[in-house]
Design a protein that fits this description.
The structure is a single chain. The protein is α+β, with helices and mostly antiparallel strands. The protein has six helices and eleven strands. It has a four-stranded antiparallel beta sheet with strand order 3-2-1-8, with no helix packed on it. A three-stranded mixed beta sheet has the order 10-9-11, with no helix packed on it. Strand 1 and strand 2 form a beta hairpin. The longest helix has about 30 residues.
Amino acid sequence: MVTTDKLQGTCSVCLRTMQLRGDHPIRHGFSAVGVRHGQHSGWHTGPCPGVNFPHLGISSEGTSWALGQARKKLGDVQAAITELETFPDLTWYPSKGYGARSLPDLSRPIVLKHDEEDRAWASLTQVEKDQALERSRMGAPTYTSLHSNKLHALHSQETELERTIAEYERVFATWSPEKYSATGTPSKVEMRHMEKACKASFGEWTGVLCRRTRRGYASEKLPKTKEPGEVTCKRCRAALGLPPL
């Protein structure tokens, strides 16, 4: 067993347990409270803002900042919902490229109007008819479907932000330095494989039990042992019929 003197604490923004560098968490990817990036609505594009604040065992300053940001964003989302409920004109962009490389073509905006769907085809002007046919040719959605998708996305963000705000408020209600005090990181087990004699037409070498190896640097540098009791590799122990550590 190889023990370490590293400490871990609770990030005051994403509320995850992270290794510490001094009083601050080490750089780590951003995660909304209870929602990991990549599940929906975005990907990791930078470090969690919690790296700029002391961990929760010292201060709740980062949580206060994050709560203010969440409340501000919730206000912006609710304002966007209110505006969308007035059925404004919506802009849609056709795609360029294919598959995963498909991107919106910002050079060809398509404006969708709510009142056009309520009017009979005969009442549209020739220009409006031409525009409708062009939108159909380019695969544009109807105003109703695009409006519904946008409204659903905003309501999802609203629900997520309300959940986040509630969690931050819960942390504030019960916060104390003792509750979030730093702790030592779990001990690290040094990996050791079980030796295995390997033989081929071009020679012999010492590999490991849990995987196929070739003669050379990798097989020679893998930490190995001849004693089953010293094996720490999970797969080697399973192959030997030993219980996991």
